[in-house]
Amino acid sequence: MIRTMDLSFDLYLERRSWLHSLDPRVKLLFVALSLSTLLLFNSLPVMACFLLAFHLILLSARIPWSRIGWIWSKMWPLTLLIFFLWPLFYPQGERVLLEFWRIRVTSAGLIQGLAMALRVNALAFAFFVLLLSTDQAKLVRGLVKLGLPFEWGLTLAIALRYLPLLYGAYTAVSEAQRARGWMVAKGSLYVRLKSYVPVLVALIITALRMMDNLSMALAARGFQPGAKRTYFRELKLGNADKVCLFALIVLFSALLTARFRCSFGA
Amino acid sequence: MKAAIEFRKVWYWYEDSIPALRDVNFAVEEGDWVAIVGQNGSGKTTLAKHCNGLLKPKRGRVLIYGEDTNERRVEELARTVGYVFQNPDHQIFCPTTLEEVSFGLRNLGFSREEIEGRAWEALRAFGLEGYASKPPAILGYGLRRKVAVAAVYAMRPRIMILDEPDLGLDWGATKRLLENLNRLHEEGHTIVLITHNMKIAAGFSQKVLVLHDGEVLTYGPTRGVFKEIELLEEAALSPPQITRLSRRMIPCGMRGDSLTVEEFCEEYSRLVVRAKRASSLPR
Question: For the purposes of burial, counting CB atoms within 10 Å of the CB of B187, is it exposed (0-12), middle (13-18) or buried (19 or more)?
């Protein structure tokens, strides 16, 4: 039985949807614009609207609720941390809810804390829109098309490809050492870290061997850094991509105008 | 007498995956030499990892000398069950081969003298004395494999499990490795060997367990298992060539169950002698 990797390091979910078929460059622009817009606004309703919009985008791309729930399960500790810590460092506001020693918790602080927590989630969801709907190879192709040197793109693609393998190697190495009676020592952090030497050294040797084999395999298939290349899969903007690009730019301009001309969502 | 290894209705599945082991039942007696054979992905390594507690059954029980692996840690089971992994690089980390071979012994808390004695003995057994002070990571693949086996051999576990130890080794090195295992076996150790090499299974093991899609297709004495051609074919396996040749010669008077070339030659010589005698009899 082929063992499935416990940790795949790839969030991509294969679906047939409008979002999946979009050019990765459009989705990269979406992420960039979302990040800049989110950092411009502070208000709670705006953050909530962004978050809602990202959820709707994901659902329309047939990303299941279970996966959205998984994202929330990873995000909630950070969300709670921001929500509870923010009011402690934001004492402004008229309505004081709690005051002791030097700490002053106000309703404005709480609202701001919630807004900030939602902002972090919205920022994360903007990335998840990209990562859940774009496979790694396509993402790297998009980056290369946007001007990233091919060698860097290849390095990124290899790094992403080898992460699960390295994790697999880590599991295998620790299993092999445990089978020889090795266990993590009890005691101080230094002692515990030192006891990891058998696993780390073997893992580094394995990784170096993998790297060596890979470089030879690349060389054997004619890879030359800086050489002129042709591409089997060329990215081209389709009509749907152009419509989305246009909609994104219009929406971003409208939000910028609303923010700076009408002070909306400050 | 308690079995060395006993699987009782064992089920195992990896996360989000179909069962890798389905209702596995079998027992390995102390001192047995068992070969586990099956296609890639049939569950051989999954099964073997249950023996030293690296994997715990999702359903059922695995008993090592009567003790449930669920109640023992891998590090404790390492005293009884030695496991040689497929890839030697997954365990090699020490600056010298001698230290590498001593690592398991130090973990098990042996005295300095005992560690040195056993480590050198293991190095000698595998012809590695000349490499004792060399870093094992820079040795060739065949030598690294030997180091990995010697490191577990030095621990002298009552049960020794080897996952495809012949992988990447030439026949000479494989034979020497198997002879060393044979010596351990003669001393009373239980050997469990995962292999794709039917010649090894036929020539060295007393029993063969055939796995197919996580199920035990058949388990029993080697000669008997290699007679079950149809069952083996179901698992996309085939007996060694010499067994197949011997089967083809049943019409000529051969028994058809030779497992090794030596056995075949012996039987064939008897057949020829008998035929000669028959032809020299007066009509």
Answer: exposed
